[in-house]
Amino acid sequence: MKPVPPACAESDSSPACWRSLDHLAGSPAFRRQTGCEFPGGLAACGDAVSRRHFLRIMSASFLMAGVGWGGAGCRRPEERIFPWAHQPPGVAHGMPQYYATAMPTRGSALPLLVKTLEGRPVKIEGHPGHPDSLGATDPWAQASLLSLYDPDRARRFAHRGRTATRAQAFEFLDRTAAKLVANGGDGLCLLMEQSSSPSRERLQSLIAQKFPKAHWFVHEPVRLDASASAARQLTGQPVQPRWQLDRARILVALDCDFLGGEADPQRAIRDFARGRAIAGPGGAMNRLYAVEALMTLTGMNADHRLRVPAGAVMAVGAALAAAVAADHPAVKALARSVPLPPGVDPRWVRECAADLKSHRGASVVLAGHRQPAAVHALAHLLNQALGNIGATVHFMPGPPEARGLAELAARLQAGQVDTLLILGPNPACTAPVDLEWSAAQAKTQSAVIRLGYFEDETFAGSTWHLPMTHYLEAWGDGRTRDGTWVPIQPVVSPLFGGLTDLEVLARVAGLEVCRPHAIVRDTFKGLVGPDRFEDHWAAFLHDGFRARTAASPVAVALDPERVATLLRAATPLPMPGPDSLEVVFHRDYKLDDGRWNNNGWLQELPDPVTKLTWDAAVLMSRNTAQALGVRTLAQTEADHGLADMVEVTLGRRTLRGPAWVQPGMADFCLGLALGYGREQTGHGGTGRVGHQIGAYNAYALRTAAAPHIAQGARLRKLGTRYRVACTQEHGAIEGRPIVREATASHYAQHPQFAQSPESDPHAARLPRDAQGRPARLARHPYDAAAPPAPAGDGLPPGRLKSETHQWGMVIDLNACVGCSACVLACQSENNIPIVGKDQVWRNREMHWLRLDRYYTGAGEPSDGAWIDNPRILLQPMLCQHCESAPCEYVCPVNATVHDDEGLNLMVYNRCIGTRYCSNNCPYKVRRFNFFDYNRRPLHQLRGPFYPSPLTTATDGQWTLRRWLHNPDVGTRPEDEWELLKLARNPDVTVRMRGVMEKCTFCIQRLQQAKIVQKVRAGASANVRVPEGAVQTACQQACPAGAIVFGNLLDPDSPVARLKRSGRNYTLLDPLDLRPRVTYLARVRNPNPRMPEADPGPPAAATKGGA
Amino acid sequence: MTRAGPGSASHGRPNPLAAAAARCRPRLDPARAAAVAGKMSFLLGLGGVTIPSLEQSLQTGPVKRAGGRVEEFVPAIFPKWANRLPVMVMAAVLWVGGGVTAGVWYYFTPKYTRQGYQPIQPVNFSHATHADQVGIDCRYCHDGVETSGYANLPPTAICMNCHNQVLRDDPGLALVRESHDLEKPVPWVRVHRLPDYVYFHHAVHARRGVSCDHCHGAIHQMEEVAHAQPLSMAFCLDCHRRPAPNLRPLDQVTRLDWEPHQHLPADWFAAAVNAWGVNPPSHCAACHR
C-alpha cells in the first residue's frame, strides 16, 4: 500500500520556537514561504503562462537541444594524455597530496593542511597536529580557496592605471631603492597590515638599520588587539592576554564576541565546546553570561544574556567589578559615576558576581575589541581579583604598539611623505572617513607603490600597483597565537605572477636576497642555527610547525597606579534614545572588514545571526523600529523580503540602507556591518552582478574618534523598499519539535528527556496500531526479505544490509555554536555552486547543509519583552539519510535509492527533475538545480525572466555558436570558467541543470576510504574501514567537534557510543523513518538564582520547532 | 541471477519500473538510453513546432457567429492545406522511423562503446614488443596501478631508462628524446575513456585479483593499443555481480598470458571470494558520486 502521511493542520497556538517575527505573528508572507516547496517559481512571474505559449517555448528549446545534439554531442573528440616528461618524486596521478601551511590572520596564523590534486589546491582543512589549533578551521579559511581562483584578482602590474610589465615594475623598484639608499630612507613611509611573520619582523629591522629615516605604520580597519593594548597600558610591558576557555566554568563576555568576532574564533569555539561538554546527567558544564548590544554568536550561546547599549557595557562592567573587588577605590568611583542603565536588574549583576566569586581561578571575564580601554581594564582587574591570571588567563609576550593610520595621514597632509609603500591594506576604502585619505594620499611627493590583491579603491591613487599573491601561492611564515612558528608554503605557483610583501620590502630596500623562499629560510636559520639546517627545514615544512617554539607566559601584575589612571579617564557614554541613536560598527561574520567582499561562498553564506545573504542591513530592535516607524512585519505576501530603506545620519554624514529587525538587539542601537557596498572591487562585491547587493558602506560614517561605537545618530525612513535575501524562513518545518533542549537541572532529573515522541503535537493524529503505538507508515527496506542466495558464484548469501559498514552521524546541539564553517566546508568539498541573491530570495540556494536558527522565549510577560530578548537554538540540518526514506518511494525513475550501508543515494544521471522527492522530504533538505548554476554567470541568474543563450553574447561571440564550438563552457567568460574549474573537487560530479541534489555523507570520501582499505587488504578479508579513517567535510571543519560520523557496526566507535546517550533523539520520530542522522539535545546551564532564570518545567523542556 | 539492490525492491511494494529496468539492464545502459532519448526529443521538437501552428489554424473555427445565431457557413471545414496532411504524416513517420533506425544502428553497436577504437599514436610504441617479447611487467611503466585510481601513463624518463642504451638514435624515438630533453610531454592519444560521471579506481581492482586483461584485453599482443571491451555499465555490473570467475592470485594479476582457469582448480574461485571477503558494490554510488 502506498504510505499516506497523515494530514496535519497548523497548530493554533503561536509556535514555541520561531524563525522570524513574521513566523511568530503568522503573517501571510511566512505562510507563503512554507506553503510551497520552492516559492517564487514560474507562478511568481506575475502573468500565467498559457499552454500554447509554453508549447512554443518548449518546442523551440527542443529544437535547439536537437541541433546541439546533432552538431556537438555526436562528435567524439580525440583526447590527448600528457604525461610528465620527468615525474616529480612522490607525485602520483590521481593521488591527493597534502601540504602543511598556514593562513595569515591579524597578528596570528591559522595552521592548515591543503589538499592538492594535479598541482592545484582543492580543499582546505585544519591542521590536526598543530599544538595550538588542533585541526580547527573557521569559515574564512574554508572560503579562502575560492579567493585564490577569483577571476577579479589583480592580475597585472599597473603604472598610473595602465598595464606595465613586470620588468618595468622591478626597474622602478630598483631605482627607488637606489634613491632611498642615498638619502637614508628620507621621506619613505611604509603602511602594512598586522602580521605575525618573523621574516617580516627581521626584514623590518634590517631596513630600519638601512633607512633610519623611514617611518612604519600599521593599518587594520578592525583592530582586534584592544585587550592587548590595554594590557600593555596596565602593565607597562609588551604583553598580550591569552585565554584558556576550556578551564573556565564561568565566562562573562562584556561585548566580547569571542565565538565569532574576535581574534582566533576557531580556537575559542573549540575550548568553549570542551568546557560545555556534559558527561551525563548531573555532569558539570560551563556557564556563559553575555552583556552586549548586538546579537552575536556569543550572545546566541549564552545562558544569560543582558542586552544593553554598547556604551552602557562599561556600567555593567563597573558594577560587576565593584561587586567582586569592593575595596578598589578607582572601581568604586567609576561604579558611582556610571550607574547601571535603566532596565537592568541589579540582581543580575549581583548574582553574576556571586557566581564569579564562587569560581575563583576557574572563571574568566572577557572584554571585546569594540569597548574602550577602561572596560578592558575592568576585565583585567576582575580576572586578577578572581585569581584567574595564571589559571584561565595568561599574559604572553606581545608585539610593541605600532603607529596607526592617523599619524600617517597627518604626515601626508603635511607633505612630509616622498614615497608611500602600501603593502596590502586598502586605506582608500577602510580609513576613517574624517582622515580624508584619498586627498591625503594624493599629497605624496613622488610615488605611491601599492601591493594589493584587488584593483580596488586604493588602486586609483597608486602610482604603481603590484599584484599580490594569495597565501597559497607564496612563501612566508607566521606565528600562531601561542607563539609557535609555522611555515606558509606555496601549493601552486602564482596564477598571475604576483609578489609577496616580503619580496617587495626586500626590493625596495635593495637587499641582496629578494626571493621570499630564501628570505624565509634565512629567518628560520636564525632560529635553528646552521647545524643540520636542511633536516630542520624539511621537518618544519613537513610538520607544518616548529615544535617547542611556543612562548611561555610572562609573570606580570597590573600596576595599580596605571589601573586607577585608566579608570579615572573613562568617559561614560549617554544612553541612546529615539533622537540620539547609538551606532555600532561591527566586523561582519562573512566579509570581515570587507577583505572577503568578492568571495561568492562567503557572500552567499547566510549570516550566522541574521541569516541575510549578499547584504548587510541596518540592524535594530523591534522597539527601535516601532519608535521610528519602521515596519516590523510583512503585511502581505508581496512584502516578503522587502525591507524599509532608512537614512542614518551621524554628524553631517549620511548612509542609506535597508532596516532589519533583529531580536535581541539593545533598544535604540543600530548595527552596521563593515565591508559591504564597496565601490571598487570584483564582481561579487559590488552591484555589478546585476543584482542590487551590498546596500551600504558603513565606512562612510566611521570616524577615527569613534571607530566602533558612535553616539547621536538619527534615523529617517525613506519610504522606499529594498529586497533582501534572507534564509531564516527557508525550510520551515511546520511546528514539529525538531529541536529539543532542557536545563542542566532538568536533565539531571530526567536523563531521557529528549526521547519523547509524544511531545510532538502531531503524534496524536498519526494512525495507531492495536497496542496504541504509532503505526508504521512504511516497511523498512532493511526489514524486507533478503533475496535468495545467488547460486554457484561463491558470493555470500543474498542480503540487503552490509555487515561491514553502516554509516551514521550524530550532531551535538550542545556543542554547535553556529559558526557556519561546516556549510562552507561542504560547499568546497561537494562543488556546490553559488546562485546569486535573486535565486536565494527564491529559496533556491544550493547549500546541502544549512544552519537553522530558532528563537524561543518563556512566553510571559504579555508585554512581549520576551520577543525582544529571546534565547536561540541552533540546528545544523542536512539529509537525514532515513532508512525508509520518503523521497525514495516517490521517485518515478529510481534516481534516489538506498545502498546497503545505510546511505540514501542521489543518482544524478538518472534524475529527470520531477522534484517529487523534494516535495515528499519532511526535512526540506533536497536542493534542485533550476539552472546550470555552474555555467551561468551571476548576472544571468536574475529572474523572473532569464536571458537565453539564443539572445546573449559571451566573450564577444553569439553564445549558441560558441557553445556549438565547445559545449563545455556555458555562458561564463572563458577565463572565468577556466579559473573556477580549478576550484572544483574532481572526485565529485558537477551537477547540471534539472537534477536534484543533497547531502551524500561525502560518499566520495567513504568510497575512497573503503578502496584504500581494500587495497591494503589485498588477499585478505580485512575490508572494514578502521575507525577514524574517514571524516565528512563538515565534521572535519567543525571547530567544536559537534559532528561525529562513523560506522555504527563498531560498538566502540564514537558515533555508536553517542547514539546510546540519553540526549540522543531522532527528528520527527513518530514518522518512524529511522534517520541515520540523530541529534543530541541541547542542555542549558542557567543560574537558578538569576532574575530571569526560568526553572524549566517539564512541559517546557522540549520545545517545538518551526 | 542478479542481486536486487535495496533501492530497487525494498520499499514494501513492487516497483514495476525498477523491475523492468533490472530486466533490460544487461542490454540497455542508461548512457545509451539517454542518447536515444536525446534523439527522440529532437524529433519531438520538430513536432512541437508544427503542432501549435496546426492548432492555431484549426481554431480559426468553421463558423462565424453574430449575436449567438449562426450567420453563415464557412465553405470548408478544413483549410486547403489539410489535403497535404497525409503526405506530411508520411514524411513525419519516415523522419521518426529513420531517426529511430539510425539511433539504434549507432548507439546499440560496438561503435558507440568504442570497442575496436584504435587511434594512431604519436610514437609507434608496441606493447607486443615490450610486454610480451621483452617481458617487462605492466607495473614498470604503469606504476600507479596498485596505489592510485589512475594506472598512470609513464613519464618519458621511464622510456629513457632503457632507450638511452637501446635504440639510442632510432628515428622512431625522436619524439621521445625530444620530450625528455625539452621537458615536453609526449601527446599520447587516449584510448580508454569512461564518462565523466563514472569513477573507476584501478588499484582496488588490481589489488583484489582482477587482471588487467579482463578490461583491456590481450594488450600484450597488441602492436597498437585498441579498445578491446565495451566498458559499458553492463560490462562492469556483470563482473560486480559475479566476480568469482574473474579473480586470480594477486601475483598473477599482471601476467596477461596466464589463464587462471587452466592453472587453478575449479573450486578455487568461490573459495577466494569467501576468503578475501569479495563483495563488489553493485549500488549506484559504487561508481557514480
Polypeptide structure, described:
The complex is a heterodimer of chains A (1106) and B (289). Helix content of chain A is 26%, strand content 18%. Chain A is α/β, with parallel strands linked by helices. In chain A, a hairpin with a 5-residue loop joins β19 and β20 (485-488). In chain A, α7 crosses α13 (373-385), α10 (313-324) runs antiparallel to α11 (329-337) and α10 packs parallel to α13 (373-385). The longest helix of chain B has 29 residues, at 30-58. Chain B has a two-stranded antiparallel ribbon. The relative contact order of chain B is 0.11. Chain B contains twelve helices and three strands; from the N terminus they run ααββαααααβααααα. Chain B starts with 15 loop residues before the first helix and ends in a 14-residue tail after the last helix. Among the domains of chain B are: 29-51 and 72-109, no CATH class; 127-153 and 188-286, no CATH class. Chains A and B meet through α3, β2 and α30 of A and α1, α2, α7, β3 and α12 of B. β2 of chain A pairs antiparallel with β3 (188-189) of chain B, so a sheet runs across the interface.
